[in-house]
Amino acid sequence: MPIPYSEKVIEHFKNPRNVGRMEDYDAKATEGSPACGDMVTLYLKVDEATKTIQDIKFESYGCASNIATGSIITELAKGKTLDEARKINWKAAAEELGGLPAVKVHCSVLAVDTLRAAIRNYEERHGLVADREPTTVEVVEKRLRHVMNPLTGLDIVKTHVVKQMDVSNGVVTVWVDLTRDHQFANNIEQEIRERLEPLWDVAEVRVIFNDDEQE
Amino acid sequence: MQDGIIYMDNAATTRVDPAVVEAMLPFFTEKYAVASSQFSHSPGIEVREALDAARATIAQALGAAKPEEVIFTSGETESNNWALKGMARAFRGKKNHLIISKIESRSVLDTAQALEKEGVRVTYLDVDGEGFVDLEQLRASITDDTFLVSIQHANEEVGTIQDIDAIAAIVKERGVAFHTDASQTFTKVPLNLAETPADLVTITAHLIHGPKGIGALYVREGTPIAKWMHGGFMEFNLRGGVENVPGAVGFAKAVELTSATQVEYMSSLRDRLIDGIMARIPKSELNGPRYRRLPNNVNISFHYAEGESTLLHLDMMGIAVVTGSACFSRSLEPSYVLMAMGKTHEIAHGSIRYSLSRYNTAEEVDRVIEATAEVIETLRRISPLGKDEK
C-alpha cells in the first residue's frame, strides 16, 4: 500500500457511504478547493421540528483519507440532532476509522469542517444564529486550532507553532515559529489564510515567519 | 513481486534481468578479491580484468574516447552530487556561478541548494509548458563566473527530452563545463559523447534492468573535477573505496542486453497507452511533449479526480503507478516539475505517471487503459467538480 491506511479507511474509500448530490437539500457547504488538493461539498436534509439530520450526502475531490472521513462522519451524523452532530470532531472520525497517518490528518479535518459549515449554513438560513461576532484574537485562535502541522498531526496552536496573534483594523497578523524553508511552510501558511480570510470583518491576513523581514 | 501485478513505475526502478543476476553471481562467491589488488595476487588480477571489461562496455555505449573516462559510483544521486560539488570545489575562489534548470532531479536540485548555502550563486532556468529549457535564457545566464551548467537529458516525470546538442553547443561556446544527468535516457535515447561535447554525464544501472547501487559519472579527459571519495587510489584516484565489481559487471551486462528494437517496442506501448487513454477518457490532458518524449514515459492529468485516490484504486487493482499530487508527497507540495511548467495545482493533483519497460506488454497496456477509465469514472461520480460543465 502506498500510504499506510487502516483497513477501515480503505473499506470506506472503496465503498463510500452517503455519497452523491442532493437536490432538495436544506443546507449545503463546500470547504477546500481544487488548488489545495481536497474539496468537500456536503448536503443536509433536516427535520425542522426536531432539528435532526434526516438525510446527508457528500461529494469529495480528494485523497483516500478525505473520502473515508466524509463517509464515516456522514454515517455518524445521520439521525443525530444538529447540536449532537456539531460535536463530531476529526478525532472521533479518525478513531472510528482505526486511525489516520499524521500527514493525512488535515485532509480529514476538512471533511469535519464541512459538516460544521453545513450545520451553520442551516442555522443561518433558519435564523438560528446570533449576530455576527467581531473577530478577536480568541476567534483567530479558535480557527487556527483547525490548522494542523502535518509533521505531528497536531494543531499549530497546541504545538506552539503560532507564537503570537494580533487583530487590528481588519488586519490579522500571525507570527509562526518556523522558517520559510521548513518542509511545510507553504502548506501551513496557505491553511492559515484559508481559515482566516473568509471572516466577515477581516480585510487582510499576514503570516510572518522567523526569517521574514520585520517592519 | 506478486504475480499478476502490472508494474508501470519503471522510471523509479526496474526489474533486474535474470541474465544480469547470472553474470553477477560469480563475483560474490568465487571472484571476490579486491580489484585494486592487481599487484598482489592472481585472484585480484582476474577481478581487475572483469572490472576493466565492464568499464569498456559502458564507455563504448557512451561513445567515450577512453574507458578511464567512466568512473563507477553508487548511482545517480552520487554521480550528480559529485558532478556539482566536485566542480564547485575545483573552482572555489576562482568561479562561483552554477546554472541548472528548475526541473532537474532531486539530487541535482538539492545539491545546488546545498551549494547555495555555501555561497555558490545558482541560476535556475525556466522551462516552457512542455518542459523544454529556454535556450535564450541559458545563453544570457552564462557569465565569466560560471563554472558549470547542469541540465538533464530527459525528465523522469514528464519525459521531455532536451535538445542536448544545442544546449551543449551554447555552453561549450563559452568555454564552460557541461554536465547532464542521462539516467533516464542511457541506452534509450541516443547520446554519443564523440559528438556531443558534454564533460560530465550521470548514468545508472537500475533503470535499465541492472542492479541498484551502481552507476557512473563520465568525466571527459581534462575536466578539472575534484577527487570525490578520499581513502585510496581506486577509480583513477577519483573515488576511493573497494570497487563494487559485482555491480559493475551487472551494469555492463544490462547495457549489453539493451537494443534499439526494445526502444521501438517501448515507444509503441507508450503510444498505445497515450492514444488509448486520451480516446477513452474525456477531460484528460497529456503532460509533457507528444514527441521528443522518453520512449517509456506517459504522464496524464485527469480533471476532477485527485491523484492519490486514483493511484490507490489502481494499486488495489494490481497496477503500480505514481502521481504528482501533493497528497502523495511527503512535503504536501504538488510536483515541482509540473508547477515549473506553469500547470495549475489541479493539474498537478490529478496527474498520473505510467512508466514502461521492455517487460510490459500490449495486453497490460490495454488492461491499464480500461482500469484507469473505470477508476476515473468512479472518482468523478463522487466529485463535487465538473458536473455543471457540459
Topology (elements, then pairings):
The complex is a heterodimer of chains A (215) and B (390).
Chain A: H1 7-14, E1 27-33, E2 38-47, E3 52-61, H2 64-77, H3 82-86, H4 90-96, H5 105-125, H6 137-144, E4 148-149, E5 154-155, E6 162-168, E7 171-176, H7 185-196, E8 204-208
Parallel strand pairs in A: 7-8
Antiparallel strand pairs in A: 1-2, 2-3, 4-5, 6-7
Helix pairs in contact in A: 1-2, 2-4, 2-5
Chain B: E1 6-7, H1 18-24, H2 26-29, H3 42-62, E2 70-73, H4 76-90, E3 97-101, H5 106-117, E4 121-125, H6 135-141, E5 146-150, H7 164-173, E6 177-181, E7 200-204, E8 215-219, H8 234-237, H9 245-256, H10 260-280, E9 284-286, E10 297-302, H11 307-316, E11 319-320, E12 322-323, H12 336-340, H13 345-349, E13 351-355, H14 362-382
Parallel strand pairs in B: 1-11, 3-4, 3-5, 5-6, 6-7
Antiparallel strand pairs in B: 2-8, 7-8, 9-10, 10-13, 12-13
Helix pairs in contact in B: 1-9, 3-9, 4-5, 10-14, 11-14
Describe the structure.
The complex is a heterodimer of chains A (215) and B (390). Helices cover 35% and strands 23% of the residues of chain A. Chain A has seven helices and eight strands. Chain A has helices spanning 7-14, 64-77, 82-86, 90-96, 105-125, 137-144, 185-196, and strands spanning 27-33, 38-47, 52-61, 148-149, 154-155, 162-168, 171-176, 204-208. In chain A, the strands form three sheets. In chain A, strands 1-2-3 form a three-stranded antiparallel sheet, covered by helices on one side. Chain A has a three-stranded mixed sheet with strand order 6-7-8, covered by helices on one side. In chain A, helix 7 links the parallel strand 7 (171-176) and strand 8. In chain A, helix 1 crosses helix 2, helix 2 (64-77) crosses helix 4 (90-96) and helix 2 crosses helix 5 (105-125). Chain A is globular. With 390 residues, chain B is of the alpha/beta class. In chain B, helix 1 runs antiparallel to helix 9 (245-256) and helix 3 (42-62) packs parallel to helix 9. The longest helix of chain B has 21 residues, at 42-62. Chain A binds chain B through residues 1-3, 10, 13-14, 16, 19-21, 30, 34-41, 59-64, 67, 103-104, 107, 150, 183-184, 186-187, and chain B through 304-306, 308-309, 311-313, 315-316, 325-328, 330-334, 344-346, 349, 381-385, 387.
